[in-house]
Amino acid sequence: MFAAMLDTSLADHVNRTLSTEQQQILADLRAYCTERLRDGATAELTRGYTEPHSETMARELAERGWWGLMIDPRYGGAGGGFSDVGIFLEETFRAQAPIAGYVPTFIVVAALNAFGTEAQCQELLGAVAAGGVLAISITEPLVGSDAASVTTSARQEDSRDGPVWVINGEKRWCSSAHVASHILVICRTSEESDRHHGLSMIFVPRESEGLEITAIETPIGRVSNELVLRDVRVPGDALLGTAGNGWVQTVAGLNAERVILAASSLGLAQRAFDDALAYVQERKQFGRPVGSFQSQQHRFADLATELLKTRLLVRWVAGLVDEDPARLLPREASMAKLAATELAKRCALEGLQAMGANGYDTQYGMVRHLQAALGATLYGGTSEIQRNIIAKTLGL
Ligand SMILES: Cc1cc2nc3c(=O)[nH]c(=O)nc-3n(C[C@H](O)[C@H](O)[C@H](O)COP(=O)(O)OP(=O)(O)OC[C@H]3O[C@@H](n4cnc5c(N)ncnc54)[C@H](O)[C@@H]3O)c2cc1C
Fold this sequence. Notes:
Layout: H1 2-5, H2 10-15, H3 20-36, H4 41-46, H5 55-63, H6 82-94, H7 102-115, H8 118-129, E1 134-137, E2 153-159, E3 162-171, E4 182-188, E5 199-205, E6 211-218, E7 221-235, E8 239-240, H9 246-252, H10 254-282, E9 284-285, E10 288-289, H11 294-323, H12 330-355, H13 357-360, H14 366-376, H15 383-393
Parallel strand pairs: 1-4
Antiparallel strand pairs: 2-3, 3-7, 4-5, 5-8, 6-7, 9-10
Helix pairs in contact: 3-6, 6-10, 6-11, 7-8, 7-10, 10-11, 10-12, 10-14, 11-12, 12-14, 12-15
């Protein structure tokens, strides 16, 4: 009965290997997104995509339990694991739901699940389960791929209300900071001879005095921000995990980050493929659909094969993380992130070519898919860095 509710695309044949609960999530999500994102509704939700995160939609998804995936029910969440979050991301990104805030939020949720105190989980996971957003900030103007070289500093001081952290520095590319309640800032709390030591993770409320948040203009709207922190003071218990252990905690979160980025990119890849396929079936030249030309047929055959391979890879890695969230999977998680983000870029590029000039018309959406996909091969470690990691695990 369930299979009959789903359409017969290639992706849906694979979906039958999901658990009954996951198939239900997928079917319900698809129905919700179809209804909510019908013509005109997207503009209402996102003011025409200049703000790719809709708080209204986040709340609606929270009411249905989906925003609370991977959050313990005692904090108001819906439970579940990375495989469930992966399915949520595949489907919502395929539907182009305006929920950009979900991605950084769930990277931070994974960190809270691993290192949060009871009080932090009560406050922050509770807020997320109700539709809230969290952000994470590592990158700085002079620190990108070499993330352990962070210079933003935090020093401890005593105050009348107990110890506080005083944070100073500049950050860049902090996604969704402008809609987040808190930003998890990676900063240096002590100078050590090895730069991997002495880093810490500290939660900074968005409304903190001394924190300035400025939008970075990107082709897909306001996704990311610059932060300037001038003597920002937060309580001592804003520290996540252990002082000086920030690098170890960051590495421990990389599986989560890469699975989340891979699943969202896979959804984007699927959407670019779906849109281009629909177009070539409709558009006629020389008296026949352009999709009937062999060069087009082969293009779509190749992309469909890559989509299936990548879907299996991403879901397999998500399943491995669920089996043992503490196990590090540098090779497999990097492969999933590399494969899915590069595939999103390829699907959008090839989709644009397959559609001819209309692919280049912003109204048809393919250019936007391409712009979004280009970002995905950069954030969370560029494709070059993922390849470096994979090569290292091969002993090279
Ligand atoms: C849309 C978007 C959202 C983002 N969101 C966040 C966020 O929420 N939080 C956050 O902290 N950061 C975020 N980032 C930043 C992102 O993680 C960094 O851009 C990324 O780590 C790469 O750093 P960089 O851009 O400074 O490139 P650089 O490190 O300056 O690298 C420049 C080029 O050199 C290559 N390169 C560098 N080192 C090597 C090497 N060892 N081997 C081979 N090639 C190398 C890179 O691959 C790249 O092609 C975001 C970025 C984007 C575009």
